[in-house]
Write a structure and sequence with these properties.
Elements (H helix, E strand, L loop, with lengths): L1 H48 L13 E7 L2 E3 L2 E4 L4 E6 L8 E2 L14 E5 L4 E6 L7 E6 L1
The structure holds copper (II) ion.
């Protein structure tokens, strides 16, 4: 009788310890997402506090490079401020150019290893392509 009572006590001890552990786990599972939410809020604040950065532009703002590689413009879309410039660098062996679809600007056709720079003074979104390779397309955003 005493032995079985003892083992019953042991079981309840284990039960309560297990229950405590479960309670602690539940508290953690609430605490961790709460901490993460605070972290995200803090990071979000510092990000929104910084000046908006134009996408895909090189540090320094106004001067951006676009590679012509494997008959593609890389990056395909660039954003520059008014008065900024883009230098297209031909890394292929074939000649490329960059010609605005609306005809407002164009580079010369130039060979591999060369580069050409254009400066943009008029805000707008310009889609462009390479004349010898019509599937080679890109977009310049001047804002
Ligand atoms: Cu081309």
């Amino acid at each position: 009788m005493a032995t079985s009572f003892g083992s019953y006590e042991k079981e309840t001890d284990q039960e309560s310890r297990r229950r405590q552990r479960r309670r602690r786990l539940r508290a953690l599972s609430v605490l961790i997402p709460a901490l993460l939410a605070v972290l995200v809020a803090v990071v979000g604040c510092t990000e929104s506090g910084a000046a908006p950065q134009p996408t895909e532009s090189v540090a320094g703002g106004g001067a951006v490079q676009v590679a012509m590689v494997d008959k593609e413009f890389d990056p395909e879309t660039v954003t520059i401020p008014v008065g900024g410039s883009i230098t297209w660098v031909n890394q292929d062996t074939v000649s490329h150019n960059a010609v605005a679809d609306d005809g407002s600007w164009a580079t010369d056709l130039f060979g591999g290893g060369n580069s050409t720079t254009l400066t943009f003074d008029t805000p707008g979104t310009y889609s462009y392509s390479c004349t010898p390779h019509p599937n080679m397309t890109g977009t310049v955003i001047v804002e």
